[in-house]
Amino acid sequence: MIQRIKSEETQRLILVNAFTLFYKNGYRSTSIPDIVKHAGLSKGAFYHHFKSKEDLGKQTINHILRNRIYNGIIGPIKNHDSKPVITFLIDLFTNRIANFSETESRLGCPLNNLINELGCAEETFRINLRKIIEEWKTALIDLLEYGKEKGEIKKNINTTVTAMYIISAFEGARGIGKLYNDKEILQQYLFGFIAYVKQLE
Prior knowledge:
transcription; DNA binding; DNA-binding; 2 domains; Homeodomain-like_sf; transcription regulation
């Protein structure tokens, strides 16, 4: 039991350190020696848990990145409170942007970064990254449909189109914010987002 727990802790240590380096330097610019050095482990420990860097990359997306996006935005959408849907969305995105750390503002969205870097690469990366987007989109669609049922959102609103637009605009703003290294970009996005979602009422 103790050995299994230690093995799981080592695996997670590698995943967390890999995510940190992928986020900071990019997937392609990060090597296995970089990761094991950052984690304070040996190459033997790495290959005990992962077949290759590609295997590590996929597991980092499926576990660390997916959990980060889920905890930050997908989970709150799925477990939305009793506020009107539009008010809830405005509060959610306002708080999300306000709580970005300096590192998050400077480096942008790790999901968006990996999509841009690996979206045209090996198919498995594309599938795993798409799963996160699809989970986010589905959560938004369900929320918007709930709003329609409650009479809070116009009946003629296409919730699939709206959900994808919200995600695309948010991810685009984070990428442009990184380019300018300016938090004001996200504030400008937020003003536009608020104006857009209010039109759904």
